[in-house]
Design a protein that fits this description.
With 146 residues, the chain is mainly α. The protein is built from 4 helices and no strands.
Length: 146
Amino acid sequence: MAHAAPAPARSTGAGRPATPSVTTLAKVLPVVTGALYGFWAANIQRFGQEVTGGNIALGFITGILVAALCFGIHQWCGRQASRHIGVRAMVWGAFAGIAVGFLQSLANGAILWSVVLGAVVGGSTFVAVYYRYYSSSEYAPEHVGS
């Protein structure tokens, strides 16, 4: 019985693969996340008033900081391979919790609510990232077909 030969990968006109590589997404995603976060932080801080230099500075600083941290954490986690699953999940959880808590504090809410919201988001992120890392690691139990 004849088998079909594997089809060659589709490429663009320049000979590159049609889908973006993981390294491209690993560089673009932190930049987009930082830009959106900076815009969001600056928009919260202005309280419906006109845009000031302080709003613009806050947006640029927080955006650059979030992009750099997101890129750095992603690079560090990539180098850890399948080690330190809990530590990597804790770092992502702390990053997400602090980021959301900071945005909530910009809205002039109660500091206790900022802390609680940051802790809930951080804990949820920890659980989700831990599950993702554990299920894709070598320590995950093998599924035995019944």
